């Protein structure tokens, strides 16, 4: 009698490799496009954190001013945004801004070349400056947004003069100091003066151990991965909260994503995207996504059914009930999920550094490889500081929401 082979040999690994090869041969264009986008996003964000440009700061200030104008000056604001977008696209495709600048008298731009120590004029800076001036004028015309507009536009002007005129005479790395001050101002605005003071001291410590550029590379990677993970996780969580079948399918998948060793995610990521920051971001997205899905579903399911029934009784459609009742009331729980996504993303930076993602993870890995305790400790301290900074900010956003304040006042 021939013995039976038990347990039978299952070629799971071979099947997994065959699936990867089929996906790459059939959808290689998709993976290339995703890889290029992630690489561009991480590079652009990290570059801004390390060495911000005045045009980028002008664009951010314009967006901050424009946000509240959507309710009161929607039509002129859309016209301004459309015109600015058209100028950006024309400059990107045809260098239209360069042609216009070259046709104008050079005396108009001497101040900018002297301030930024450049031999030419950046057309993107000119477009961003026009955008900022236009929304500033529009915001000044509305009484409710006049103070906010003046503070933001004046803050941009002070930042530019400080970073490109005053600080270069005092410190060696003025733009790093500018970013430290901006991060500290953000922390002060969101979480109070204690968090602002902590940001000044802690981020200065990161810069003092020569880890500023690496920390900003890591911050860019974490923010891109967290943003993509949240954008994917929240809709899945909403679907799971509304559909029991989706919830039953999602739960074992999320369990698998959370229990699978993080190193395993790097194998297909490297196969599809090669070495660099992209596989690190992709593996981080997969590893960090589950809490966002779970807590979004939990938050929506915990909303009082009587409130939902009241909305239905008034004839509100499902979309309106979701956006007007369930999501606002579930916001503290959803923000807790966002917080967990960010923390898990930070926990992946060392592993991502092993596949060429750079940043603090690469520094920790080099410290291990070279038995350099000083380098590993400094990079590890920088990771801890970033974790505390991001954790406190997201926690403050959640605790300062109207729903959280209402809950505290009622209790």
Features:
411 residues, mainly alpha
Radius of gyration: 25 Å
Between the first and last Cα atoms, what is the distance in angstroms? 76 Å
Low-confidence stretches: none
Largest sheet: number of strands, sense, barrel closure:
none
Number of helices: 20
Structural overview:
There is one protein chain. With about 400 residues, the chain is mainly α. It is about 85% helix and about 0% strand. It is built from 20 helices and no strands. α7 (about 125-140) runs antiparallel to α8 (about 145-165). The chain is globular and about 100 Å long. The model has no long low-confidence stretch (mean pLDDT about 90).
Fold blueprint:
Layout: H1 12-50, H2 54-66, H3 69-72, H4 74-94, H5 96-103, H6 110-116, H7 123-141, H8 146-166, H9 174-191, H10 193-208, H11 212-242, H12 244-259, H13 262-273, H14 277-301, H15 305-313, H16 318-347, H17 349-353, H18 359-370, H19 373-399, H20 402-410
Helix pairs in contact: 1-11, 1-13, 1-14, 2-7, 2-8, 4-7, 7-8, 8-9, 9-10, 10-19, 11-12, 11-14, 11-16, 11-18, 11-19, 12-14, 13-14, 14-16, 15-16, 16-19, 18-19
């Amino acid at each position: 009698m021939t013995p039976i082979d038990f347990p039978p040999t299952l070629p799971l690994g071979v099947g997994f490799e065959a699936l990867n090869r089929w996906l790459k041969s059939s959808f290689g264009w998709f993976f290339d496009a995703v890889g290029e986008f992630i690489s561009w996003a991480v590079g652009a964000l990290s570059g801004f954190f390390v060495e911000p440009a005045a045009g980028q700061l002008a664009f951010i200030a314009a967006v901050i001013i424009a946000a509240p104008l959507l309710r009161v000056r929607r039509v002129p604001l859309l016209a301004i945004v459309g015109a600015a977008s058209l100028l950006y696209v024309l400059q990107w495709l045809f260098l239209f801004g360069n042609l216009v600048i070259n046709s104008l008298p050079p005396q108009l731009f001497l101040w900018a070349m002297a301030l930024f120590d450049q031999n030419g004029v950046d057309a993107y800076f000119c477009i961003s400056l026009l955008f900022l001036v236009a929304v500033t004028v529009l915001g000044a015309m509305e009484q409710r947004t006049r103070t906010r507009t003046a503070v933001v536009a004046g803050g941009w002007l002070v930042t530019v003069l400080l970073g490109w005129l005053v600080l270069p005479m005092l410190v060696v790395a003025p733009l790093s100091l500018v970013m430290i001050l901006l991060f500290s101002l953000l922390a002060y605005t969101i979480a109070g003066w204690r968090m602002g003071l902590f940001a000044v001291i802690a981020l200065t410590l990161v810069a003092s151990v020569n880890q500023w550029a690496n920390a900003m590379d890591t911050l860019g990677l974490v923010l891109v991965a967290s943003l993509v993970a949240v954008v994917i996780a929240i809709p899945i969580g909403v679907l799971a909260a509304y559909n029991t079948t989706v919830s039953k399918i999602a739960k074992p998948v999320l369990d698998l994503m959370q229990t699978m060793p993080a190193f395993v995610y790097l194998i297909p990521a490297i196969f599809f995207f090669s070495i660099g920051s992209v596989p690190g971001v992709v593996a981080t997205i997969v590893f960090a996504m589950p809490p966002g899905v779970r807590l979004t579903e939990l938050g929506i399911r915990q909303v009082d059914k009587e409130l939902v029934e009241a909305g239905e009784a008034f004839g509100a459609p499902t979309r309106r009930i979701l956006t007007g009742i369930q999501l606002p009331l579930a916001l503290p729980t959803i923000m807790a999920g966002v917080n967990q996504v960010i923390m898990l993303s930070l926990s992946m930076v060392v592993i991502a550094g092993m596949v060429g993602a750079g940043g603090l993870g690469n520094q920790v890995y080099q410290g291990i490889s070279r038995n350099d305790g000083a380098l590993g400790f400094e990079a590890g301290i920088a990771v801890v500081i970033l974790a505390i900074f991001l954790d406190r900010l997201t926690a403050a956003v959640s605790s300062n929401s109207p729903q959280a304040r209402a809950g505290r006042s009622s209790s």
